[in-house]
Design a protein that fits this description.
The protein folds into two domains: 192 residues, no CATH class; 139 residues, N-utilizing Substance Protein B Homolog, Chain A, CATH 1.10.940. By secondary structure, the chain is mainly alpha-helical. It is built from 15 helices and no strands. The radius of gyration is 25 Å and the shape is elongated.
């Protein structure tokens, strides 16, 4: 379940926290990284358990309504929802029950939230349509819960707040974990009964090692990577980059150089998206151009042996920079992501929900995400960088920083 997208997010968070905190203990930070990833798997199981908790609340309601209807000689309420075949199979699932029992996860201490969620479900058109039809089949039961999850659990601000209170590790996990829960619902097959397999914590040991290796390479080679940033961006004012941009690019360079099977297009795409989500509104475009320049610099220097597409020719009318547009290093941001008026910009570890896309042309033409395992690769060179004076590793801004989801 823990895929490389989630791993990259966690490495960004932990690297940011590593430099923000005074304690530079890489072993402790690595343990924190792996713990943070394991908490995402806890959330996956916890959200599956929420489906069961809702059904159990509905059973209590149906039981009370049945008793009342019997005493008043009225029509008994339908039991279709509480006998939903997909939910019953999930409730009996051996993997889920074992995990929940082992971790002690339960919704019993959040009864009020579960009741409110049941109220919303009962008032929905999805519920009304489902209950108005005769007893259907397993596929209808499963699809009903998939729709209910998307409408009432995937986008639920009350649930987001509740989860944040329960674990500091879940601040940014839910969006990705939701996709895995929905994938699991679709994968359920009645033939498997209680033995239906859930998604494993890691697809394989290679992904777990990817997390360790990426984080360690980022920290241990920080000086070299930042020298590459400076040397590849001589026309830009490196010192005026947002602090989060530097962290993201440092990790991106570590991935470029440490993992020969991951194409450069994949790496640049992934970290541009992280910059859009976690740094300043313009960071996506800046990180895009910087990483493209750094990749080309490393290829030219022989430190990186990966194919890189030629830069597309821009039309002649776009060669002239529009009037009023400042050079990269003078874009109006103060040092480390602070504006000229001293107000902290959104380059902490919260997602930048106001991001509306990079402005102006970027230097690298991105394609849809590429399957890393199927992409072409020519390896990397294990060339030792020349010794020279190198920039310092990222330092926390002097102005108090918003650590966001600091782990």
């Amino acid at each position: 379940m823990i895929n490389r997208e989630l791993i990259r997010i966690k490495v960004v968070q932990l690297t940011y926290a590593y430099y923000q905190n005074g304690d530079k203990n890489i072993d402790a930070a690595e343990k924190e990284l792996l713990l943070s990833l394991s908490k995402a798997y806890d959330l996956y199981n916890y959200l599956l358990e929420l489906i069961i908790a809702v059904t159990q609340e509905e059973r209590e309601r149906v039981e009370k309504r049945t008793q009342l209807a019997a005493s008043e000689d009225k029509t008994l309420p339908s039991q279709k929802f509480i006998t939903n075949r997909f939910e019953l199979q999930l409730e009996e699932n051996k993997m889920l029950n074992s995990f929940i029992e082992d971790k002690g996860l339960a919704w019993a201490d959040s009864k009020e939230f579960v009741r409110n969620l049941c109220n919303q479900i009962e008032q929905s058109q999805i519920y009304t349509d489902y209950m108005s039809t005769p007893d259907g089949d397993y596929e209808e039961d499963r699809e009903t819960w998939r729709k209910l999850y998307k409408q009432f659990i995937e986008e639920n601000t009350d649930l987001d707040a509740l989860l944040e209170d329960k674990s500091i590790y879940w601040n940014d996990d839910k969006e990705i974990v939701d996709t895995f829960v929905l994938k699991t619902i679709k994968r359920f097959d009645p033939k498997n009964k209680a033995d239906q397999e859930l998604l494993p914590e890691y697809k394989d040991e290679e992904d777990k090692e990817f997390a360790r290796k990426l984080f360690r390479a980022t920290i241990l080679n920080a000086d070299s990577y930042q020298r590459y940033m400076s040397e590849a961006s001589r026309n830009w004012d490196f010192s005026r980059l947002a602090y989060m941009d530097v962290v993201i690019m440092q990790i991106a360079i570590a991935e470029m150089l440490s993992f020969p099977n991951i194409p450069l297009q994949v790496t640049i795409n992934e970290y541009v998206e992280l910059a859009k989500a976690y740094s300043t509104p313009r960071s996506g475009g800046y990180v895009n151009g910087m990483l493209d320049g750094i990749a080309r610099f490393l290829v030219k220097q022989g430190k990186l042996l990966k194919p890189l597409p030629e830069r597309p020719e821009r039309p002649a009318e776009q060669q002239q920079r529009p009037a009023g547009r400042e050079q990269y290093g003078n874009r109006g941001y103060g040092n480390n992501g602070y504006g000229n008026n001293g107000v902290r910009r959104n380059n902490g570890m919260r997602r930048n929900d106001d991001y509306a896309g990079p402005t102006g042309p970027t230097r690298f033409v991105h394609r849809p995400r590429i399957n890393e395992s199927n992409a072409n690769n020519e390896g990397t060179a294990d060339t030792k960088p020349q010794t020279s004076q190198t920039p310092e590793t990222p330092q926390a801004p002097e102005t108090p920083a918003d650590n966001g989801t600091q782990e």
